[in-house]
Amino acid sequence: MMRRSTRRAGSRAVSSLLVFGVALGLAFGAVRAFADETPSDPAKATEAKSTAKKEKTNQRAKTAKAAKGGSVSEGTKVAPGTMPVKPDVEPQHVQVQHILIGFAGSIPGKGITRTKEEAKKLAYEILERARKGEDYDTLVKQYTEDSPPGIYDMSGRGVSAGPGEYPRDKMVPAFGNVGFAISPGNIGIADYDPQTSPYGWHIIKRLK
């Protein structure tokens, strides 16, 4: 009986040691893995934190830019109410004023000589100036390839057009896409696209 008890005690001791050894090994492995992932050099650790912070800031800036509907130079102060804000409910009727910036060959009958790249650069410069508070009527008269004042009344999809209104679906798609997606006073831009905005860039201000 003593031998069996001794053997059982010894077996239990070995089992306990094995369990302890496995647990110790796992703990050691976790510590080692953590040590491998954590820079031992304080300078490298600081650099890693700085890089992560910059990446996070850049991502926020990109998200903000996308939401604003057009770029604004760093440090530019915009006039209140000019940045695009989506209406809570899409309006049935809008009145917009726009500045059309075309390029060579984009508008039939117009002798425009600027390149597509020059047109885009000019369009975004005008957008920025308008958002800073320059008189919009003056910008329209100075730059638009359409006839000033460039004001259009539009009815929404499925809404009967009133006197002097254009049905949204009869307009250049991007024109309505921007006009109905911003609030009164906001200024947005429709980028050139062969299907949705074939004449060039439209800088669009919603009047009402």
Verbal overview:
- The chain has helices at 2-37, 42-68, 116-131, 136-143, 173-179; strands at residues 93-101, 151-155, 165-167, 187-190, 201-206.
- The protein is an alpha+beta fold and 208 residues long.
- The chain has two domains: 2-68; 93-206, Roll (Chitinase A, domain 3).
- It has a five-stranded mixed beta sheet, with helices on both faces.
The CATH class name of the largest domain reads Alpha Beta
Classify the oligomer. Answer: single chain
Q: Rough shape?
A: globular
Mean pLDDT: 77
Strand order of the largest sheet: 3-2-1-5-4
Question: Helical proportion?
Answer: 40-55%
Q: What name does CATH use for the topology of the largest domain?
A: Chitinase A, domain 3
The topology string of helices and strands comes to HHEHHEEHEE
What's the domain count? 2
Through-space gap between termini: 100 Å
Give the arrangement of secondary structure elements.
Layout: H1 2-37, H2 42-68, E1 93-101, H3 116-131, H4 136-143, E2 151-155, E3 165-167, H5 173-179, E4 187-190, E5 201-206
Parallel strand pairs: 2-3
Antiparallel strand pairs: 1-2, 1-5, 4-5
Task: Based on the model shown, name its key terms.
208 residues, alpha+beta, Chitinase A, domain 3, 5-stranded mixed beta sheet, 5 helices, globular
